[in-house]
User: What shape does this take?
Amino acid sequence: MSKTIAILPGDGIGPEIVVEAVKVLERLQQTHGLAVELRHGLVGGSAIDACGTPLPDETMALAQASDAILLGAVGGHKWESLPIEQRPEKGLLGLRSGLGLFANLRPALLYPELVEASTLKPEVVSGLDIMIVRELTGGIYFGQPRGIRTLDNGERQGFNTLVYSESEIERIARVAFETARKRSRRLCSVDKANVLECTELWREVVTRVGRDYPDVELSHMYVDNAAMQLVRAPKQFDVIVTTNMFGDILSDCAAMLTGSIGMLASAALDADNKGMYEPIHGSAPDIAGQGIANPIATILSVAMLLRYSLAEDALAEQVEQAVRRVLAQGLRTADIHSPGTTRVSTTQMGDAIVAAL
Ligand code: IPM
Ligand code: MG
Assistant: This one.
């Protein structure tokens, strides 16, 4: 039976990069026997414009009925003055939480061809291969109470709640240990246990879960140190597991080690490996519509989708190989361009990857 993939392009550069990823899926349908049905939906600002809400019921229903979701990016200046509850980002957060996609895998992998594109010295980043496992449906992103209130003295006060229950910590820890088992068996849990009780519990639960994985070497690091170590000596890390907000920040940091945030894919998985796949970069409204965005992160998200949700490991491998081949040919979008390479547009990059398939 054919599987269904929901395609949610979103805003900004989202539609441009998703078109290229869809070309890849269509090529796999035509010539590699991939049996999938692609169904498009609206999310984020484009959904606000068309339906008045960032996550229309139809989109939620489509996402629920699909085997996997491919998402571009959401957000843009146009919707920034809306109240937080109605912003494009709520569409994305609603999908993550509504679908129970608690485990976010964010690999940071440096392609040898791009070592010059990193702002760090080649010896610091060459061979870099890190996996950040970010908790995605809890923590301060979703904790209650939250809001902006007015105090008795008339001053306004903003507040959010950082909260994790033991079961939430335990399930993300297990994903992280299992992930480490398939890699170099080293896991670093990042917290702020010296200041925040919530992450004191995080450390305790991760340590407890670790007793079930004696073959994985577990270490703990405070988040400020982790940020420093990521730019000082990133290759000391294999798998990192951390909270929703720390993972948001550290994954952007890790992305830049690889030369461009335009290269990195991600998977958000539920307990049954149903997943939503998206580039970790945002909607980049400043460069939208110019044909200069890098579609590789989205195309590599297709590879993750094939691997994790469709169990099509061989096809995933072929997509990754195609990306490598095109980089080896010297083709580069603006963000990863360096002297001696050939600068290409979003569409040309997509076409080259399809051709390499
Ligand atoms: C990410 C993004 C999102 C987040 C935004 C767009 C809500 O920064 O996926 O990293 O903060 O999780
Ligand atoms: Mg982010």
Remarks:
- The first helix runs from residue 14 to 31.
- The pocket of 3-isopropylmalic acid (ligand 1) is lined by residues 75, 89, 92-93, 248, 280, 282 (CB under 6 Å).
- The two ends are 24 Å apart (CA to CA).
- The mean pLDDT is 96.
